[in-house]
Amino acid sequence: MPELKIVVSIKQVPDADDLRIDPVTNNLVREGVPAVINPPDLHAIEEAVRLKERYGAKTIVLTMGPSQAEAALREALAMGIDEAYLISDRAMAGADTWATSYTISKAIQKLGGADLIIFGRRAVDGETEQVGPQTGKWLGIPVIGYVSEIKSLDKQKIVVTRTTEFDEEVIEAPIPAAITILETANKPRQPDIMSLIKAKTAKITVWNKDDIKAEPDKIGLAGSPTKVIKVQPPPKTRKAEVIDGKKDVEKAAKWFLDKIFEALKEEESTLKEYVKPKPKVKVNGEIWVYIDHIGEKPNRASFEIMGEARRIADLMDTSLSAAIVGGEATKSLIDEVFEYGADKVYFAETKGFDKYDNEVYTRALSTLIKKYKPEAVFFPGTRNARELASTTAIEVNTGLIADCTNFDVDDKGVLLSTRPDFGGKEMSTIVCPRHRPVMVTVRAGVFMPLPKVPGRKGELVREEIDDLFTRLKVLDYRIIEKRNILAEADIVIGVGRGIRSPENIKMAEELASLLGGVVGVSKPLADMGWYPKDRQVGQTGTTIRPKVYIALGISGAVQHLVGILSSRKIGAINLDPSAPIFENCDFGVVGDIFEIVPKMIQLLKNKEVS
User: Fold this and answer.
1) Residue of 68, 121, 70, 63 lying closest to 95 (CA atoms)
2) Which positions fall inside the Electron transfer flavoprotein alpha/beta-subunit N-terminal domain (predicted)?
């Protein structure tokens, strides 16, 4: 039997601390900036090597980029990959995910295809989560995102566990197939010295656009549907009140606790009423929101973004519509969607598919888009919706802008979508000038739902989808009962290197217990094994949105800040008055956590604060 052929697609990303942006082109300046393998891609490499060891396979790594990307390929070879290919051509520079996934698909075709193509879950520079699903779509093969375990693989099929925030399913699919792997699936190996030496002199094949027969109008900046038009530093959103706690520890501890309790008593801000803005322009198409759901249960993030989509629709002088895909159980969502502000609901009925299936849902949503031609489609930033947006964008031939946190409309009616890039260090404003609809995924927890109006009705447009063919077979399914307690906690006590030793975390646990909160840790502590990995907060851990986040001995590195920026209030205690955390908090104490925290614990035990 011929051996399996596994391709891993990786990316080099710049070190966020050395980031520079060209003020003329608004593109990232890669020359002279240290680059590393995109961290989630290390898990893709590891999974490919494990499969080779388990089943016997030929493993190939490829990347698109400049000549210095060879360093990433050599690292993959040192980890155990067999062959490496660099797709490098000046014409490919500046590609968005649409053009990148097209280029990767052409390179895989040049290789003669593959049985399995593995991608990391996301790129940490832009949080897109798009290239894997889009490459699979270009190649016309099954796509399975968010794989937490590969259960079996042979020349006919693959069986995997797919894990989202809400559910888990065991899926069987024929190969060839494309998957994205979760960071929890494995721990990437460290290559030994002999492997590193061997990889330094290994052959790397370099292909240009002509070698892979890429169409010139589909590659690079020129072929990309989306364009970056502005890059700027993130705005300051918090006004920090910081006091010196070195002289009077008890006073500082009491002040800090008072601030925590004030924050807890604050009502969560909601849109009490909606003030309609004056239109800037008149567009022909509607603004759509895709309603993400698990069976008949809607995801709250869908209603959050309807509030912002309503504003954009009014600025464009058009109507706000919602798109729902699903079977019989999903019909119950229609009334609730009207109550949250939709003027119209497009319901693509997929009988027997109440739950998300990428192939059926992509076909259904694409059918709606091609027939009714919306101006823009907003997707909540959940795993299912991100994957669906990625494959639908290829199906309807348009651009997709990921992880957006701000929107506006210019005088010409162009949607301006802004997202944090490079770990939140820069904000990029992106447009999709030539293709419609504009498609965007929206970060959860950023916007607020419109006030719910019980009994509100609108127009219902029903489309029955006849083609329900799918290559994905669900063998097992369960709702995830054990939720991420970090993501659900009202108070999170964050612990960083300043805690000095794992034993000292007990102090943070005691404070958390007295306040009714939980402990989270920065990446270095999780990496050292001082605390469970599922309690890591930050860019490569959990993004949280508690009522109060308290940073103890955390300096405030960019990678950590990304995970806490959605917190309603942030408090910090740190000895260093110049620590970046004090630029990104609401209240803080310059002081020693080993003096301030025990005093806070004592005050709470004595019930001297409330």
Assistant:
1) 63
2) 25-216, 287-476
Cα gap 335→224, rounded to integer Å = 38
Task: Give the 3-state secondary structure of residue 323.
Answer: strand
| Residue type present at position 266 | E
Which range is least confidently modeled, 113-122, 158-167, 307-316, 420-429?
420-429
Strands 569-574, 548-552: pairing is: parallel
Q: How far apart are CA 365 and CA 463, in angstroms?
A: 10
Strand, coil or helix: what is 76? helix
Do the Cβ atoms of 115 and 155 come closer than 8 Å?
A: yes
Positive or negative torsion for Cα 583, 122, 81, 14: negative
- Is 147 within 8 Å of 180 (Cβ atoms)? yes
Is the pLDDT assigned to residue 558 strictly greater than 80?
no
Are the CB atoms for 563 and 541 separated by under 8 Å?
yes
Q: How far apart are CA 386 and CA 128, in angstroms?
A: 8
Helices 193-200 + 70-79 axis angle, to 10: 140
Residue in the block written with tokens 């879950």: 121
Tens-digit pLDDT profile for residues 28-52: 565 666 788 998 999 999 999 999 9
Task: Grade residue 22 by pLDDT with cuts at 50, 70 and 90.
Answer: low
CA 542 vs CA 40, 66, 362, 488, 563: distances in Å: 14, 32, 28, 11, 6
Predicted pLDDT of residue 16: 57
Using an 8 Å Cβ cutoff, are 461 and 344 in contact?
A: yes
Residue 546 in 3-state DSSP?
Answer: coil
Output the pTM of the full model. Answer: 0.87
Place of tokens 């989560």: 129
Residue with tokens 């290919």: 85
CA torsion, ordered 556, 557, 560, 563, to nearest 10 deg? 80
Selection from 43, 79, 50, 86 nearest residue 65 by Cα: 86
Given a contact cutoff of 8 angstroms between Cβ atoms, the answer to whether 88 and 65 are in contact is: yes
Comparing CA positions, the residue from 305, 281, 355, 282 lying closest to residue 325 is 355
The pLDDT assigned to 273 comes to 75
Q: What Å distances lie between residue 296 and 325, 326, 342, 388, 458, CA to CA?
A: 11, 9, 18, 18, 20
What are the tens digits of pLDDT across the range 230-275?
A: 988 776 668 889 999 998 999 999 999 999 999 888 765 555 678 8
Is residue 174 within 8 A of residue 159, CB to CB? The reply is no
